[in-house]
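Researcher: Here's a chain I'd like modeled. Treat it as a single chain, no partners, no ligands.
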Amino acid sequence: MTEPGKRRMVSAVYGAGILQGAAFVLVPSLGKILSTAPYGYGAKSYGLLYFPEIGGAILGALLAGPLQRRAGSPAVLRAGLSANAIGMALLALASLTGGSAAYAAILAQTLCLGVGFGLTLATLNPYAALLFPGAPTTAITVLNGLIGAATALAPLALHAAAAAGHWGAIPFALMLGFALLCLVALPSHRADDGGRLQAGMLPFAIAVLLYAAAEGGFSSWAQIYVGRVARPGAFAATLALSAFWAGITAMRLVLGLVPERGRARGLLFLLSASGIGASFAALACSRDPLALVATYAAAGAACSIYYPYVMAYGLRAWPRQAVGFAGLLVAALMIGEGIGSLAPGALASPALLPRMYLALSLIALPLGYFAWTLPRRGPSSGAQKR
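Model: Modeled as a single isolated chain. C-alpha cells:
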C-alpha cells in the first residue's frame, strides 16, 4: 500500500467515524425543536423514535459478518454509509415539512441510521486495526475518541443552524459526506472464515453489554439526576452531561497514546472497571452541584477505554472473524445502552435514583473480572482452535 493511498484510506475510515458520531446524536439534539410547531410531538411519540434505531443497529451489526463473507469488507462499509446517507436525506426532508409527514420521515430515518450504525461500526473498528497493525489498540481507541468528539460537537452545530433557521443544513451536509465516502477505494479484509460466532466470544459481548448499561445509566439520566438531587438549575444539569462526554472523549484520545506492549494497558483496563463503580458510588453520595459535575467528568474518564479495549483484545483473539466479532460487540453495545437508558424509568419514583446508582456501583465486580480475564485470550489461546 502506497503512502498516499494509506493516508486516503485512514482519512476515509476516521472521517466515517466522525460523520457517524455526528449523525447519531441529531435526533436526541432535536428534542426541543420536535416538541414545538410545526412538529408538536409529545413525549410518547418522541420516545418511539428510538426503537427503530436500536433495532436497526442490532440488525445491521449482526448482518455485517455474513455480508462481509459474501461481498467483502468494502461492500459492508458502503452499505452502512449508504444507509446513513439515506437517513440524513430523510431528516433533511423532515426539516422542510411538519406534522405526520415529518414524523414518518424521521421514523424511517432512525431505522436507516440504526442499520447504518451497525454496519459501519462493525467494519470501522477492524479497518482501524488493519491500517495500523503495529498499534491496533491505539488505532481503535483513537477512532472511538473521534466518534465521541463528533457526538459532543454535533449538537452545537445543530443549535447554531437552528438559530439561523435552517437546522436541516446539518443532516444535508452529513448526507453529502457519507455519499462522498462511498466513492473511496478501501482494502478488503480477509473474508471471515466461519459462519458461526464462537462460544468464546460470549464473554466479550457480556462485558460490552454491562459496560454499555453503565454508560447509558450515566449519560441518559445525568440531567434528570443532577436536577433532582442537587436542584441547581438547568445549566448545571446540562453541564454534567457535557462533562461526561468530554471526559470520555479526552481520555480516549490521551490514553490512545499508551504503548501497545507492557503492563500499562492491563492496569488501565482494571482501573476503568473500578472507576466506573466508584463513580456510581460517588454520585449516590454527592449533593453539591459542582461535585456532581466533576464526578460525571470522572465517570466519563473511567468509561473511556473499556469498550475500545474489549474490541481490541477480541479482534486480536479472532483476526479471522473480525467483522462478525465486531458486529456482535456493536449489537451488545446497543442492547446495553437500551437497558441502561430505559431501566431507570421503571423506578417507582425518580427520588430512588441515588439508591439505584449505589447499587450500580457493584457493576465494577463483573467489569473487573472481564478486564482481568479478556486480555489473556490472545491469538495463541483456545479462541483460534477449531
